[in-house]
Design brief:
The chain is about 0% helix and about 45% strand. Strand 6 and strand 7 form a beta hairpin. The two termini are about 15 Å apart. By secondary structure, it is mainly β. The model has no long low-confidence stretch (mean pLDDT about 95). The protein has a 25-stranded parallel sheet that branches. Strands 5, 8, 9, 12, 13 and 16 form a six-stranded antiparallel sheet that branches. The chain has a four-stranded antiparallel sheet with strand order 2-19-6-7, with no helix packed on it.
Length: about 525
């Protein structure tokens, strides 16, 4: 590879920056003198006028919200946040309802328009204020949906946009996006069509080089490396892959009539990619993904997405802060996922690891995982062994089993959960639990379930099976207190160094046979 890493870059650097000439050019923003503007040869008019409400998940390019199509990156430093009101707690996650405004009113679809009234938060605004803006609303099955604002009635403090077809909540959480009027903090930006196939970008730069924003780029191409038409026995190794949008991601094994097989993706660094996944195998066999570093991929991009894959290994990867889940599975079979670090995947509707829709014979072992491990839509013969599952004070559940869906039947069965350490749950939630089983809705509880030798807050809801040797942090029902189980309310002496994420057991603490033997995640990526 020579002196440096080979680079696959789908982006283009923005050139020709100039300062806004007037407040009017910046939409009336009082900081207009600090805001830069540039035009690029990219036609995104369709992203403003497709007339639909789209879910925050990855969408085809012509249906994406504008800031999913044009993603600004500051060189190798970071992604830049879209202008938004109110400001999110973490600019990388612009779609979390906890950061939104809340209207006391339910969304109403009337006369072919969705109407959102909020006298408290929208009073005093004019229709001109909302020109070019988008609104994001919380609805459906806990998703965020985006749409262009098509009108505003000042007398009713009522936003209007395309018909919303999913279910709604009694009150409505919402936020506004993508206007130079909303730019307040360094790094924020907005885009709009500039006519004749061009797009205008406004940016309040957080650093300048020779008086100009420096090395600001955006994805121009869709997919980094595509393995197609059943291509097999390939190794993708040692690349830096960055700045792709609207396609299959950085490395995509695409579905075709012939299943690809014998593919290895190793030692790659992947960042600033908005697409299906950082690495996304589809309908293929004999796959290895190892020693990859995948981080800061926005717009609901999963780090690794195994879709109808069999006979695979995911090992020694470092996955940090991608907007979808860390590792997602749909109907994956005969898999081994071990020695990975999965950190800060707290985007909308995301988990650390998902095992969904007919997964069979999968072992999850020796991983450090933040957020929930979610088992959903049928599962059989799964082993979750010797993992640290860290809620980071945000997730109320360590392992969740939801018995919904149809692929492969509706049963969750033969699940082994052993020697895991489940810590730092958000115990402010009344339903906080180390292991959760869905109850009600006519679904049966998991069968063949064994929960042994774990350190966890508690177990709850519709769970039946073997419960042995578990160290609980609070009282549980008598049926969960099987052979060797104990409640230890004070965890202060259980672990070696929890401040440094070292949850290996401290010698001499109670029940030394319970919990995981997983070292703390390294602060930096080490390909060795």
């Amino acid at each position: 590879f020579g002196a440096g890493r080979a680079v696959v870059d789908g982006g283009r650097i923005v050139e020709g920056w100039r300062r806004c000439a007037s407040a009017e050019e910046a939409g009336g923003n009082p900081r207009w003198r600090e805001i830069f503007v540039a035009d690029i040869d990219l036609d995104i008019a369709v992203n403003f006028n497709h007339g639909q409400v789209v879910v925050h998940r990855q969408q085809p390019r012509d249906r994406q919200a504008p800031w999913q199509r044009v993603i600004l990156c500051d060189g190798e430093r970071k992604l830049l946040p879209i202008a938004q009101w109110p400001k999110p707690a973490d600019p990388f996650y612009p779609d979390l309802p906890a950061d939104f405004l809340q209207s006391p009113n339910r969304l109403e679809v009337r006369d072919g328009k969705t109407r959102l009234a909020d006298a408290k938060n929208l009073a005093g605004k004019t229709a001109a204020f909302f020109e070019g803006m988008f609104v994001g609303v919380h609805g459906g099955n806990n998703h965020t949906y985006f749409a262009a604002v098509t009108g505003f009635d000042p007398a009713k403090s009522e936003l209007q946009f395309a018909p919303f077809k999913d279910s709604t909540y009694p009150t409505t959480r919402f936020a506004l996006y993508n206007s130079p009027r909303l730019i307040e903090q360094p790094g924020e930006w907005a885009v709009a069509p500039a006519g004749a196939g061009r797009t205008r970008i406004w940016l309040l730069a957080d650093r300048l080089q020779n008086g100009q924003p420096d090395n600001i780029g955006f994805p121009e191409l869709e997919t980094g490396i595509a393995i197609t038409d059943g291509a097999s026995h390939l190794r993708v190794q040692g690349f830096l892959i960055q700045r792709f949008s609207g396609g299959g991601g950085a490395v995509a094994i695409e579905r075709s009539g012939t299943r690809s097989k014998g593919i290895t993706v190793s030692d790659c660094e992947i960042r600033f990619v908005s697409g299906h996944a950082g690495v996304g195998p589809h309908f293929c066999d004999d796959i290895v993904i190892e020693r990859c570093y995948i981080y800061q991929c926005p717009a609901w991009t999963t780090a690794i997405f195994m879709n109808r894959v069999s006979d695979y290994t995911i090992r020694n990867n470092r996955l940090v802060k991608n907007s979808g889940s860390g590792i997602r599975h749909y109907e994956a079979k005969n898999g081994r996922i071990h020695d990975n670090v999965v950190l800060d995947h707290f985007g909308m509707h995301s988990s650390g690891v998902n095992l969904y829709e007919g997964c069979f014979n999968v072992v999850l072992e020796r991983n450090y995982i933040q957020n929930t491990v979610a088992i959903n839509r049928n599962a059989e013969k799964l082993v979750l062994r010797n993992n640290v599952i860290d809620g980071a004070g945000r997730s109320p559940v360590g392992i969740a089993m939801w018995a919904s869906g149809r692929t492969g039947g509706q049963a969750i069965k033969d699940i082994e959960i052993s020697n895991n350490t489940i810590v730092n749950l958000n115990t402010e939630a009344a339903w906080a639990t180390g292991v959760l089983g869905q109850r009600g809705r006519g679904f049966s509880s998991p069968t063949g379930l064994a929960i042994r030798n774990n350190v966890l807050y508690r177990v709850s809801d519709d769970l039946q099976g073997v419960f042995e040797g578990n160290l609980y942090g609070r009282d549980v029902e008598a049926r969960f207190m099987g052979k060797g189980c104990q409640v230890v309310a004070d965890w202060s002496g259980l672990f070696r160094d929890p401040a440094r994420k070292d949850y290996r057991r401290r010698p001499g603490s109670p029940m030394m046979n319970a919990g995981a033997d997983v070292p703390p995640p390294p602060e930096r990526w080490d390909r060795k």
